[in-house]
Amino acid sequence: MNLSFTTFTEWDQSWWKKLKPIYEEAFPHGAKPESILSSMLDRGIACIHGGDIGGEAAAMAVTGLSGSEEEPTLIIDYMAVRRDLRGQCLGYQFLQQIKDWAVQEHGIKAIIIEAEAEDNETNRARLQFWESCGFTATAYVHPYIWVPEPYRALFLPLVPDFEVKDDGKSLFRYITSFHEKAYRKR
Fold first, then answer.
1. Which of the four pLDDT bands, split at 50, 70 and 90, describes residue 58?
2. DSSP conformation class of 11
């Protein structure tokens, strides 16, 4: 299947109407409201990526940059493939498209994500997906005060000198910085 890839740096309501069902299906709890997402794009701190097959939305992601100018990283805040299309390698293909875009446009050194750390079937499947894409799961489990479930950071180094020198706690500085900017008014 050929997955067309589009990156939005400005809010596009017509595209969001296509991507929103994928977002809501994959993230029924803890998803950022539409007003926050559109504000993130308006302020230039995030992008929304869409993947489509034959004009139909198939995948979506919300990403943002974090880290220093010397060591820029990409945070994947949300990424999902439409439920009926899962298991066909589209998630892997979509991630590659996001990675290629981020390297070409921003020279990123690594990609960082966070995944739910509770031990259940759904979370194990998500962890297995990210690890099959080359991500390394860290040992540190981060408790947030505003969401009930704990999270674990995963990273994908894209240059040889990017390394995590602790149990993963340091990665949450990148993640937390991104989240703080997302919820900041301006």
1. very high
2. -
pLDDT for 43: 93
For residue 27, the 8-state DSSP code is -
User: In b/e form, how buried is each residue of 44-70, taking b as 16+ CB within 10 angstroms?
Assistant: eebbbbbbbbeeebbbbbbbbbbbeee
CA distance 90 to 96: 10
Distance CA 72, CA 121 (A): 33
CATH of domain 4-183: 3.40.630.30
Delimit the domains of the chain by residue range: 4-183
